[in-house]
Amino acid sequence: MTASLLSISGLSAVSDREGGMPILRDVSLSLERGEVRGLVGESGAGKSTIAKALLGILPRTVRVTGGTVQFEGRDLLTMPARELRDIMGAQISLIPQDPQTALNPGRRIEAQLTDGLRLRRGLSSREAHARALKLLEEVQIRDPQRVLHAFPHELSGGMRQRVLIAAAFALEPKLVVADEPTTALDVTVQKQILRLIRDMQKVHGTAVIFVTHDLGVVAQICDSVTLLYAGKVIEAGATADVLQNPKHAYTKALMAAGPRYDRPDAGLEPVPQAVFEQLRAEIGIR
Amino acid sequence: MAENLLTATGLEVIYGGRRGVKVLHGVDIAIRRGETVGIVGESGSGKTTLGRALLRLVDVSAGSIHFDGREITHLPEAEMRPLRRRIQMIFQDPMASLNPRHTIRRILVEPLLLHGLAKNAAEAEARVAKILERVTLPAACLDRNPHELSGGQRQRIGIARAALLEPDFVLADEIVSGLDVSTQAQVLKLLKGLSVDLGLAMAFISHDLSVIRAVCDRVYVLRFGKVEEEGACAEVFANPKSDYTRILLDAIPLPEINPGWLDPKTGIEDAA
Protein backbone atom coordinates (compact mmCIF):
# COMPACT_ATOMS: atom_id res chain seq x y z
CA MET A 1 0.00 0.00 0.00
CA THR A 2 1.51 3.26 -1.05
CA ALA A 3 -1.07 5.78 0.13
CA SER A 4 -0.24 7.79 3.23
CA LEU A 5 -2.01 6.93 6.44
CA LEU A 6 -3.24 10.48 6.70
CA SER A 7 -3.38 13.12 4.05
CA ILE A 8 -4.77 16.57 4.70
CA SER A 9 -5.07 18.61 1.56
CA GLY A 10 -6.12 22.20 1.04
CA LEU A 11 -7.96 22.32 4.36
CA SER A 12 -9.53 25.73 4.98
CA ALA A 13 -11.86 26.76 7.77
CA VAL A 14 -13.41 29.92 9.15
CA SER A 15 -14.67 30.84 12.58
CA ASP A 16 -18.29 31.88 12.54
CA ARG A 17 -17.94 33.33 15.99
CA GLU A 18 -15.33 35.78 14.78
CA GLY A 19 -17.28 36.97 11.76
CA GLY A 20 -15.98 34.39 9.34
CA MET A 21 -12.31 34.94 10.15
CA PRO A 22 -10.15 32.30 8.44
CA ILE A 23 -8.54 29.99 11.01
CA LEU A 24 -7.08 27.43 8.59
CA ARG A 25 -5.77 28.53 5.21
CA ASP A 26 -5.15 25.86 2.60
CA VAL A 27 -3.36 23.50 4.98
CA SER A 28 -1.81 20.38 3.52
CA LEU A 29 0.21 17.73 5.28
CA SER A 30 0.65 14.00 5.16
CA LEU A 31 1.65 11.36 7.62
CA GLU A 32 3.05 7.91 6.98
CA ARG A 33 2.43 4.88 9.14
CA GLY A 34 4.57 5.01 12.26
CA GLU A 35 5.66 8.60 11.64
CA VAL A 36 5.71 11.26 14.39
CA ARG A 37 4.89 14.71 13.04
CA GLY A 38 5.05 17.84 15.14
CA LEU A 39 2.40 20.49 14.66
CA VAL A 40 3.96 23.69 15.99
CA GLY A 41 2.93 27.28 16.28
CA GLU A 42 2.09 30.05 18.70
CA SER A 43 -1.43 30.68 19.93
CA GLY A 44 -3.90 31.17 17.09
CA ALA A 45 -1.74 29.21 14.66
CA GLY A 46 -4.47 26.63 14.10
CA LYS A 47 -2.63 23.59 15.44
CA SER A 48 -5.43 22.62 17.82
CA THR A 49 -8.06 23.17 15.11
CA ILE A 50 -6.27 20.63 12.91
CA ALA A 51 -6.11 18.20 15.83
CA LYS A 52 -9.85 18.64 16.40
CA ALA A 53 -10.59 18.08 12.72
CA LEU A 54 -8.68 14.79 12.91
CA LEU A 55 -10.74 13.71 15.90
CA GLY A 56 -14.06 14.81 14.44
CA ILE A 57 -14.65 17.24 17.27
CA LEU A 58 -14.55 20.61 15.53
CA PRO A 59 -16.78 23.04 17.40
CA ARG A 60 -19.99 24.11 15.68
CA THR A 61 -18.64 27.63 15.32
CA VAL A 62 -15.86 26.38 13.03
CA ARG A 63 -16.95 25.91 9.41
CA VAL A 64 -14.78 23.98 6.96
CA THR A 65 -14.77 25.85 3.66
CA GLY A 66 -12.63 23.53 1.60
CA GLY A 67 -10.21 20.64 1.46
CA THR A 68 -10.15 17.02 2.56
CA VAL A 69 -8.84 15.01 5.50
CA GLN A 70 -8.14 11.56 4.10
CA PHE A 71 -7.53 8.79 6.60
CA GLU A 72 -6.57 5.56 4.83
CA GLY A 73 -8.04 6.99 1.68
CA ARG A 74 -11.41 8.02 3.14
CA ASP A 75 -12.41 11.61 3.81
CA LEU A 76 -13.20 12.10 7.49
CA LEU A 77 -15.02 15.35 6.74
CA THR A 78 -17.72 13.83 4.55
CA MET A 79 -17.96 10.42 6.17
CA PRO A 80 -21.34 9.42 7.66
CA ALA A 81 -21.41 9.89 11.43
CA ARG A 82 -21.83 6.16 11.99
CA GLU A 83 -18.61 5.30 10.16
CA LEU A 84 -16.80 8.17 11.85
CA ARG A 85 -17.77 6.74 15.22
CA ASP A 86 -16.18 3.43 14.31
CA ILE A 87 -12.90 5.16 13.53
CA MET A 88 -12.71 7.59 16.46
CA GLY A 89 -11.18 6.07 19.55
CA ALA A 90 -10.40 2.83 17.76
CA GLN A 91 -8.32 3.94 14.75
CA ILE A 92 -7.61 7.50 15.83
CA SER A 93 -7.27 8.39 19.50
CA LEU A 94 -6.26 11.33 21.66
CA ILE A 95 -3.74 12.03 24.39
CA PRO A 96 -5.20 15.21 25.88
CA GLN A 97 -3.37 18.24 27.23
CA ASP A 98 -4.68 18.41 30.72
CA PRO A 99 -4.46 15.22 32.75
CA GLN A 100 -6.44 16.90 35.54
CA THR A 101 -9.68 17.25 33.62
CA ALA A 102 -9.54 14.50 31.01
CA LEU A 103 -10.50 11.69 33.36
CA ASN A 104 -13.94 11.32 34.89
CA PRO A 105 -13.44 12.18 38.59
CA GLY A 106 -16.29 9.92 39.69
CA ARG A 107 -15.18 6.66 38.11
CA ARG A 108 -12.32 4.36 38.97
CA ILE A 109 -9.44 4.06 36.49
CA GLU A 110 -10.43 0.47 35.68
CA ALA A 111 -13.90 1.48 34.53
CA GLN A 112 -12.49 4.23 32.34
CA LEU A 113 -9.78 2.04 30.82
CA THR A 114 -12.02 -0.94 30.08
CA ASP A 115 -15.05 0.80 28.52
CA GLY A 116 -13.53 0.76 25.06
CA LEU A 117 -12.16 -2.75 25.42
CA ARG A 118 -15.54 -4.17 26.38
CA LEU A 119 -17.81 -2.09 24.16
CA ARG A 120 -15.65 -1.71 21.05
CA ARG A 121 -13.55 -4.87 21.18
CA GLY A 122 -16.12 -7.13 22.82
CA LEU A 123 -13.84 -8.29 25.62
CA SER A 124 -15.41 -9.80 28.74
CA SER A 125 -14.95 -7.94 32.03
CA ARG A 126 -12.29 -10.42 33.05
CA GLU A 127 -10.41 -10.12 29.75
CA ALA A 128 -10.71 -6.34 29.82
CA HIS A 129 -9.36 -6.27 33.38
CA ALA A 130 -6.35 -8.35 32.37
CA ARG A 131 -5.73 -6.16 29.34
CA ALA A 132 -6.01 -2.94 31.37
CA LEU A 133 -3.51 -4.34 33.87
CA LYS A 134 -1.13 -5.10 31.01
CA LEU A 135 -1.56 -1.62 29.58
CA LEU A 136 -0.72 0.02 32.91
CA GLU A 137 2.40 -2.14 33.15
CA GLU A 138 3.32 -1.06 29.65
CA VAL A 139 3.17 2.61 30.63
CA GLN A 140 5.43 1.77 33.59
CA ILE A 141 3.02 2.24 36.41
CA ARG A 142 4.63 0.46 39.33
CA ASP A 143 1.55 -0.71 41.19
CA PRO A 144 -1.01 -1.28 38.40
CA GLN A 145 -3.44 -3.21 40.59
CA ARG A 146 -3.75 -0.30 43.02
CA VAL A 147 -4.03 2.26 40.22
CA LEU A 148 -6.85 0.31 38.55
CA HIS A 149 -8.88 0.69 41.71
CA ALA A 150 -7.95 4.31 42.28
CA PHE A 151 -9.96 7.40 41.46
CA PRO A 152 -8.20 10.07 39.37
CA HIS A 153 -7.71 12.42 42.34
CA GLU A 154 -5.60 9.79 44.08
CA LEU A 155 -2.97 9.94 41.32
CA SER A 156 -0.29 12.52 40.55
CA GLY A 157 -0.35 14.52 37.33
CA GLY A 158 2.36 12.36 35.79
CA MET A 159 0.51 9.15 36.77
CA ARG A 160 -2.72 10.45 35.28
CA GLN A 161 -0.94 11.29 32.05
CA ARG A 162 0.40 7.71 31.99
CA VAL A 163 -3.14 6.38 32.43
CA LEU A 164 -4.31 8.58 29.55
CA ILE A 165 -1.50 7.29 27.35
CA ALA A 166 -2.52 3.73 28.20
CA ALA A 167 -6.10 4.62 27.25
CA ALA A 168 -5.00 6.21 23.98
CA PHE A 169 -3.13 3.05 22.94
CA ALA A 170 -5.67 0.59 24.38
CA LEU A 171 -7.50 -0.16 21.14
CA GLU A 172 -4.31 -0.29 19.04
CA PRO A 173 -5.10 2.82 16.97
CA LYS A 174 -3.16 3.65 13.81
CA LEU A 175 -2.98 7.33 14.68
CA VAL A 176 -2.63 9.04 18.05
CA VAL A 177 -3.19 12.78 18.30
CA ALA A 178 -1.16 14.14 21.22
CA ASP A 179 -2.43 17.63 22.05
CA GLU A 180 0.28 19.40 24.10
CA PRO A 181 0.47 16.32 26.34
CA THR A 182 3.36 17.60 28.48
CA THR A 183 2.63 21.32 28.72
CA ALA A 184 1.14 21.02 32.21
CA LEU A 185 3.96 18.84 33.57
CA ASP A 186 7.27 19.53 35.33
CA VAL A 187 10.33 19.13 33.09
CA THR A 188 11.55 15.94 34.72
CA VAL A 189 8.10 14.37 34.35
CA GLN A 190 7.83 15.76 30.82
CA LYS A 191 10.96 13.90 29.85
CA GLN A 192 9.58 10.62 31.20
CA ILE A 193 6.26 11.12 29.40
CA LEU A 194 7.98 12.01 26.11
CA ARG A 195 10.08 8.87 26.41
CA LEU A 196 6.98 6.83 27.12
CA ILE A 197 5.06 8.19 24.12
CA ARG A 198 8.05 7.50 21.90
CA ASP A 199 8.45 3.95 23.23
CA MET A 200 4.74 3.14 22.89
CA GLN A 201 4.66 4.59 19.39
CA LYS A 202 7.70 2.53 18.34
CA VAL A 203 6.45 -0.72 19.87
CA HIS A 204 2.98 -0.41 18.36
CA GLY A 205 4.05 1.18 15.08
CA THR A 206 1.59 4.01 15.69
CA ALA A 207 1.71 7.31 13.83
CA VAL A 208 1.53 10.40 16.05
CA ILE A 209 0.47 13.98 15.40
CA PHE A 210 2.24 15.85 18.20
CA VAL A 211 0.79 19.30 18.87
CA THR A 212 3.19 21.54 20.77
CA HIS A 213 4.50 25.09 20.99
CA ASP A 214 7.96 23.91 22.09
CA LEU A 215 10.59 23.48 19.39
CA GLY A 216 12.74 21.68 21.95
CA VAL A 217 10.10 18.97 22.32
CA VAL A 218 9.82 18.75 18.52
CA ALA A 219 13.57 18.25 18.20
CA GLN A 220 13.54 15.33 20.62
CA ILE A 221 10.47 13.37 19.55
CA CYS A 222 9.29 14.31 16.03
CA ASP A 223 10.51 12.86 12.71
CA SER A 224 8.96 15.71 10.81
CA VAL A 225 7.43 19.05 11.63
CA THR A 226 4.84 21.47 10.25
CA LEU A 227 5.09 25.05 11.48
CA LEU A 228 1.94 27.17 11.31
CA TYR A 229 1.13 30.84 11.70
CA ALA A 230 -2.41 32.23 11.58
CA GLY A 231 -3.71 29.00 10.09
CA LYS A 232 -1.14 28.82 7.30
CA VAL A 233 1.72 26.35 6.87
CA ILE A 234 4.89 28.44 7.03
CA GLU A 235 7.48 25.71 6.90
CA ALA A 236 7.42 21.91 6.83
CA GLY A 237 9.93 19.13 6.50
CA ALA A 238 12.13 16.65 8.32
CA THR A 239 12.79 17.92 11.84
CA ALA A 240 16.57 17.99 11.38
CA ASP A 241 16.26 20.03 8.16
CA VAL A 242 13.84 22.56 9.57
CA LEU A 243 15.76 23.11 12.83
CA GLN A 244 19.27 23.07 11.40
CA ASN A 245 18.49 24.92 8.23
CA PRO A 246 15.31 26.96 8.70
CA LYS A 247 14.24 28.63 5.47
CA HIS A 248 11.56 31.03 6.58
CA ALA A 249 12.42 34.21 8.49
CA TYR A 250 9.69 33.39 11.02
CA THR A 251 11.18 29.98 11.80
CA LYS A 252 14.58 31.61 12.30
CA ALA A 253 13.07 34.33 14.49
CA LEU A 254 11.24 31.77 16.65
CA MET A 255 14.48 29.88 17.21
CA ALA A 256 16.16 33.13 18.28
CA ALA A 257 13.29 34.10 20.60
CA GLY A 258 13.54 31.06 22.85
CA PRO A 259 15.96 31.42 25.75
CA ARG A 260 18.44 28.58 26.22
CA TYR A 261 20.12 27.71 29.49
CA ASP A 262 23.24 26.62 27.63
CA ARG A 263 23.59 29.89 25.68
CA PRO A 264 23.04 32.85 27.99
CA ASP A 265 23.93 35.37 25.29
CA ALA A 266 21.68 33.93 22.60
CA GLY A 267 17.90 33.78 22.62
CA LEU A 268 15.48 36.35 23.98
CA GLU A 269 15.34 38.25 20.68
CA PRO A 270 11.70 39.28 20.17
CA VAL A 271 10.38 38.35 16.73
CA PRO A 272 11.06 41.50 14.67
CA GLN A 273 8.04 43.48 13.50
CA ALA A 274 9.32 43.13 9.93
CA VAL A 275 8.88 39.36 10.17
CA PHE A 276 5.25 39.72 11.22
CA GLU A 277 4.72 42.16 8.35
CA GLN A 278 6.25 39.69 5.94
CA LEU A 279 3.97 36.95 7.32
CA ARG A 280 0.88 39.11 6.93
CA ALA A 281 1.83 40.04 3.38
CA GLU A 282 2.44 36.41 2.45
CA ILE A 283 -0.75 35.17 4.03
CA GLY A 284 -2.75 38.13 2.81
CA ILE A 285 -4.01 39.41 6.14
CA ARG A 286 -5.48 42.91 5.82
CA MET B 1 29.22 44.06 46.42
CA ALA B 2 26.04 45.98 47.11
CA GLU B 3 24.32 45.60 50.45
CA ASN B 4 21.41 43.23 50.96
CA LEU B 5 17.97 44.72 50.47
CA LEU B 6 15.86 41.74 51.40
CA THR B 7 17.05 38.84 53.49
CA ALA B 8 15.34 35.88 55.06
CA THR B 9 16.85 33.33 57.38
CA GLY B 10 15.51 29.99 58.53
CA LEU B 11 12.14 30.63 56.91
CA GLU B 12 9.46 28.06 57.67
CA VAL B 13 5.87 28.07 56.48
CA ILE B 14 3.17 25.67 57.58
CA TYR B 15 -0.13 25.51 55.74
CA GLY B 16 -3.23 24.44 57.64
CA GLY B 17 -2.57 25.32 61.26
CA ARG B 18 -0.26 23.76 63.78
CA ARG B 19 -0.66 20.22 62.51
CA GLY B 20 -0.62 21.29 58.89
CA VAL B 21 1.86 20.63 56.13
CA LYS B 22 5.25 22.25 56.35
CA VAL B 23 6.10 23.58 52.89
CA LEU B 24 9.23 25.59 53.67
CA HIS B 25 11.87 23.94 55.81
CA GLY B 26 14.29 26.65 56.86
CA VAL B 27 15.10 28.67 53.74
CA ASP B 28 17.86 31.29 53.72
CA ILE B 29 17.82 33.83 50.93
CA ALA B 30 19.43 37.22 50.35
CA ILE B 31 18.70 39.70 47.58
CA ARG B 32 21.03 42.64 47.04
CA ARG B 33 20.05 46.06 45.73
CA GLY B 34 19.75 46.08 41.97
CA GLU B 35 20.16 42.35 41.69
CA THR B 36 17.85 39.88 39.95
CA VAL B 37 17.60 36.59 41.75
CA GLY B 38 15.99 33.53 40.22
CA ILE B 39 13.96 31.09 42.30
CA VAL B 40 13.47 27.85 40.41
CA GLY B 41 11.85 24.55 41.28
CA GLU B 42 9.24 22.05 40.21
CA SER B 43 5.65 22.03 41.40
CA GLY B 44 5.48 21.62 45.15
CA SER B 45 9.02 22.90 45.67
CA GLY B 46 7.75 25.89 47.65
CA LYS B 47 8.93 28.61 45.25
CA THR B 48 5.63 30.47 45.21
CA THR B 49 5.24 30.14 48.98
CA LEU B 50 8.74 31.52 49.46
CA GLY B 51 7.86 34.53 47.30
CA ARG B 52 4.66 35.13 49.23
CA ALA B 53 6.44 34.80 52.55
CA LEU B 54 9.05 37.37 51.51
CA LEU B 55 6.23 39.79 50.75
CA ARG B 56 4.48 38.98 54.03
CA LEU B 57 1.49 37.60 52.14
CA VAL B 58 1.62 34.37 54.14
CA ASP B 59 2.63 34.05 57.77
CA VAL B 60 5.86 32.29 58.67
CA SER B 61 6.08 29.87 61.57
CA ALA B 62 9.80 30.34 62.07
CA GLY B 63 12.64 32.46 60.76
CA SER B 64 12.99 36.15 60.10
CA ILE B 65 12.67 38.57 57.19
CA HIS B 66 14.56 41.86 56.93
CA PHE B 67 13.78 44.55 54.39
CA ASP B 68 16.18 47.46 54.03
CA GLY B 69 17.73 46.73 57.40
CA ARG B 70 14.45 46.51 59.28
CA GLU B 71 12.87 43.35 60.59
CA ILE B 72 9.44 42.89 59.03
CA THR B 73 8.71 39.28 60.00
CA HIS B 74 5.81 40.12 62.27
CA LEU B 75 5.29 43.78 61.46
CA PRO B 76 1.58 44.67 61.85
CA GLU B 77 -0.23 45.40 58.60
CA ALA B 78 -0.59 49.10 59.44
CA GLU B 79 3.20 49.41 59.70
CA MET B 80 3.69 47.23 56.61
CA ARG B 81 1.53 49.51 54.50
CA PRO B 82 4.10 52.28 53.94
CA LEU B 83 6.52 49.57 52.82
CA ARG B 84 4.03 48.07 50.38
CA ARG B 85 4.74 50.74 47.80
CA ARG B 86 8.41 49.81 47.85
CA ILE B 87 7.68 46.09 47.47
CA GLN B 88 5.72 45.31 44.34
CA MET B 89 4.54 42.13 42.71
CA ILE B 90 3.87 41.06 39.13
CA PHE B 91 1.52 38.11 38.93
CA GLN B 92 1.42 34.99 36.79
CA ASP B 93 -2.01 35.57 35.33
CA PRO B 94 -2.62 39.22 34.41
CA MET B 95 -6.25 38.42 33.63
CA ALA B 96 -6.78 37.45 37.25
CA SER B 97 -4.72 40.26 38.74
CA LEU B 98 -6.21 43.18 36.80
CA ASN B 99 -9.75 44.20 37.75
CA PRO B 100 -11.86 43.29 34.70
CA ARG B 101 -14.33 46.12 35.35
CA HIS B 102 -11.72 48.86 35.50
CA THR B 103 -10.16 50.58 32.53
CA ILE B 104 -6.40 50.40 32.14
CA ARG B 105 -6.36 54.13 33.01
CA ARG B 106 -7.96 53.50 36.38
CA ILE B 107 -5.75 50.46 37.03
CA LEU B 108 -2.62 52.56 36.52
CA VAL B 109 -3.70 55.94 37.92
CA GLU B 110 -5.33 54.79 41.14
CA PRO B 111 -2.24 53.35 42.89
CA LEU B 112 -0.33 56.58 42.22
CA LEU B 113 -3.00 58.62 44.01
CA LEU B 114 -3.44 56.02 46.74
CA HIS B 115 0.24 56.06 47.63
CA GLY B 116 0.47 59.83 47.27
CA LEU B 117 3.03 59.67 44.48
CA ALA B 118 0.98 62.09 42.42
CA LYS B 119 -0.75 65.16 43.79
CA ASN B 120 -3.67 65.06 41.40
CA ALA B 121 -5.16 63.09 38.53
CA ALA B 122 -3.43 65.20 35.87
CA GLU B 123 -0.02 64.55 37.37
CA ALA B 124 -0.79 60.85 37.67
CA GLU B 125 -1.93 60.72 34.05
CA ALA B 126 1.30 62.28 32.91
CA ARG B 127 3.33 59.63 34.71
CA VAL B 128 1.13 56.88 33.33
CA ALA B 129 1.62 58.20 29.78
CA LYS B 130 5.36 58.04 30.34
CA ILE B 131 5.41 54.48 31.61
CA LEU B 132 3.11 53.32 28.80
CA GLU B 133 5.66 54.57 26.34
CA ARG B 134 8.36 52.75 28.26
CA VAL B 135 6.48 49.43 28.01
CA THR B 136 5.72 50.20 24.33
CA LEU B 137 1.94 50.30 24.59
CA PRO B 138 -0.17 52.85 22.68
CA ALA B 139 -2.02 55.49 24.70
CA ALA B 140 -5.26 54.11 23.24
CA CYS B 141 -4.91 51.22 25.70
CA LEU B 142 -5.92 53.52 28.53
CA ASP B 143 -9.58 53.45 27.65
CA ARG B 144 -9.73 49.69 27.24
CA ASN B 145 -10.57 47.02 29.77
CA PRO B 146 -8.12 44.19 30.47
CA HIS B 147 -10.00 41.64 28.34
CA GLU B 148 -9.56 43.83 25.27
CA LEU B 149 -5.77 43.45 25.39
CA SER B 150 -3.65 40.48 24.33
CA GLY B 151 -1.87 38.36 26.93
CA GLY B 152 1.46 40.03 26.23
CA GLN B 153 -0.07 43.49 26.47
CA ARG B 154 -1.78 42.63 29.76
CA GLN B 155 1.47 41.40 31.20
CA ARG B 156 3.14 44.67 30.16
CA ILE B 157 0.37 46.53 32.03
CA GLY B 158 1.22 44.38 35.08
CA ILE B 159 4.85 45.43 34.74
CA ALA B 160 3.90 49.07 34.23
CA ARG B 161 1.70 49.03 37.34
CA ALA B 162 4.55 47.67 39.45
CA ALA B 163 7.18 50.03 37.99
CA LEU B 164 4.99 53.16 38.37
CA LEU B 165 5.27 53.07 42.15
CA GLU B 166 9.06 53.28 41.97
CA PRO B 167 9.60 50.22 44.14
CA ASP B 168 12.91 48.99 45.47
CA PHE B 169 11.94 45.37 45.12
CA VAL B 170 9.73 43.49 42.68
CA LEU B 171 8.58 39.89 42.93
CA ALA B 172 7.73 38.35 39.55
CA ASP B 173 6.00 34.98 39.89
CA GLU B 174 5.92 32.90 36.67
CA ILE B 175 5.07 36.00 34.70
CA VAL B 176 5.82 34.56 31.26
CA SER B 177 4.64 30.98 31.64
CA GLY B 178 1.36 31.67 29.83
CA LEU B 179 2.90 33.56 26.93
CA ASP B 180 4.07 32.54 23.46
CA VAL B 181 7.85 32.56 22.91
CA SER B 182 7.85 35.66 20.73
CA THR B 183 5.82 37.59 23.31
CA GLN B 184 7.82 36.09 26.17
CA ALA B 185 11.07 37.42 24.71
CA GLN B 186 9.55 40.89 24.47
CA VAL B 187 8.27 40.90 28.07
CA LEU B 188 11.53 39.54 29.51
CA LYS B 189 13.64 42.03 27.60
CA LEU B 190 11.44 44.86 28.82
CA LEU B 191 11.59 43.69 32.43
CA LYS B 192 15.35 43.35 32.29
CA GLY B 193 15.70 46.85 30.86
CA LEU B 194 13.44 48.35 33.52
CA SER B 195 15.23 46.65 36.39
CA VAL B 196 18.52 48.12 35.17
CA ASP B 197 17.05 51.61 34.59
CA LEU B 198 15.30 51.76 37.95
CA GLY B 199 18.01 49.90 39.87
CA LEU B 200 15.40 47.36 40.98
CA ALA B 201 16.08 44.33 43.06
CA MET B 202 13.99 41.48 41.75
CA ALA B 203 13.05 37.96 42.69
CA PHE B 204 12.09 36.07 39.57
CA ILE B 205 10.19 32.87 40.22
CA SER B 206 10.01 30.36 37.38
CA HIS B 207 9.96 26.67 36.62
CA ASP B 208 11.93 27.38 33.45
CA LEU B 209 15.70 27.31 33.90
CA SER B 210 16.29 28.75 30.43
CA VAL B 211 14.23 31.82 31.30
CA ILE B 212 16.06 32.15 34.63
CA ARG B 213 19.41 31.96 32.87
CA ALA B 214 18.36 34.74 30.52
CA VAL B 215 17.31 37.30 33.14
CA CYS B 216 18.91 36.48 36.50
CA ASP B 217 22.26 37.20 38.14
CA ARG B 218 21.97 34.53 40.81
CA VAL B 219 19.73 31.53 41.26
CA TYR B 220 18.26 29.49 44.12
CA VAL B 221 17.21 25.95 43.21
CA LEU B 222 14.38 24.82 45.48
CA ARG B 223 13.26 21.28 46.15
CA PHE B 224 10.79 20.03 48.77
CA GLY B 225 10.89 23.41 50.53
CA LYS B 226 14.66 23.54 50.89
CA VAL B 227 17.41 25.29 48.98
CA GLU B 228 19.11 22.58 47.00
CA GLU B 229 21.73 24.84 45.45
CA GLU B 230 22.49 28.54 45.29
CA GLY B 231 24.97 30.63 43.37
CA ALA B 232 25.77 32.90 40.45
CA CYS B 233 23.94 31.76 37.30
CA ALA B 234 27.18 31.54 35.34
CA GLU B 235 28.52 29.13 37.97
CA VAL B 236 25.42 27.03 38.67
CA PHE B 237 24.50 26.49 35.02
CA ALA B 238 28.03 25.69 33.85
CA ASN B 239 28.92 23.60 36.84
CA PRO B 240 25.97 22.44 38.94
CA LYS B 241 27.01 21.03 42.30
CA SER B 242 23.78 19.28 43.12
CA ASP B 243 22.64 16.16 41.27
CA TYR B 244 19.13 17.54 41.30
CA THR B 245 20.15 20.72 39.45
CA ARG B 246 21.94 18.55 36.92
CA ILE B 247 18.80 16.43 36.41
CA LEU B 248 16.66 19.54 35.99
CA LEU B 249 19.02 20.93 33.36
CA ASP B 250 19.26 17.62 31.56
CA ALA B 251 15.46 17.37 31.38
CA ILE B 252 15.12 20.56 29.31
CA PRO B 253 14.68 19.67 25.65
CA LEU B 254 16.82 21.94 23.46
CA PRO B 255 15.75 22.75 19.90
CA GLU B 256 18.54 20.74 18.33
CA ILE B 257 18.79 17.12 17.27
CA ASN B 258 20.25 15.16 20.15
CA PRO B 259 19.99 11.44 19.47
CA GLY B 260 19.80 9.50 22.66
CA TRP B 261 18.50 12.41 24.75
CA LEU B 262 15.32 10.47 25.46
CA ASP B 263 17.12 7.24 26.27
CA PRO B 264 17.41 6.49 29.97
CA LYS B 265 20.94 7.18 31.15
CA THR B 266 21.14 6.29 34.80
CA GLY B 267 18.92 5.47 37.69
CA ILE B 268 19.13 8.94 39.21
CA GLU B 269 16.38 10.39 37.05
CA ASP B 270 13.74 8.20 38.57
CA ALA B 271 14.78 9.40 41.98
CA ALA B 272 13.92 12.94 40.94
TrEMBL record, chain A:
Q: How does it sit in the membrane?
A: Peripheral membrane protein
What range(s) does the ABC transporter domain occupy?
6-255
One GO cellular-component annotation of the UniProt record comes to: plasma membrane
The keyword Glycoprotein is assigned to this record? no
Family stated for the protein in its record: Belongs to the ABC transporter superfamily.
Key words, A-Z? ATP-binding, Cell membrane, Membrane, Nucleotide-binding, Transport
A single GO BP: peptide transport
Compartments annotated for it: namely: Cell inner membrane
Q: Which Gene3D superfamilies match?
A: P-loop containing nucleotide triphosphate hydrolases
Please give the InterPro entries that the UniProt record associates with this protein: AAA+_ATPase, ABC_Ni/Peptide_Import, ABC_transporter-like_ATP-bd, ABC_transporter-like_CS, Oligopep_ABC_C, P-loop_NTPase
Name the chain's protein: ABC transporter ATP-binding protein
What are the protein's GO molecular function terms?
ATP binding; ATP hydrolysis activity
Q: SMART domains, per this entry?
A: AAA
UniProtKB/TrEMBL annotation, chain B:
Q: Which residues form the ABC transporter domain?
A: 6-249
Which PROSITE patterns did the record assign?
ABC_TRANSPORTER_1 (PS00211), ABC_TRANSPORTER_2 (PS50893)
The answer, when asked if Magnesium is one of the entry's keywords, is no
Name of protein: ABC transporter ATP-binding protein
User: Can you cite a GO biological process for this protein?
Assistant: transmembrane transport
Which InterPro entries does this chain map to?
AAA+_ATPase, ABC_transp_ATP-bind, ABC_transporter-like_ATP-bd, ABC_transporter-like_CS, P-loop_NTPase
State the family it belongs to.
Answer: Belongs to the ABC transporter superfamily.
Q: Which domain of life is it from?
A: Bacteria
Q: Which UniProt keywords apply?
A: ATP-binding, Nucleotide-binding, Transport
One GO MF annotation is: ATP hydrolysis activity
Classification lineage: Bacteria, Pseudomonadati, Pseudomonadota, Alphaproteobacteria, Hyphomicrobiales
Organism for this UniProt entry: Metarhizobium album
Q: Which Pfam families match?
A: ABC_tran
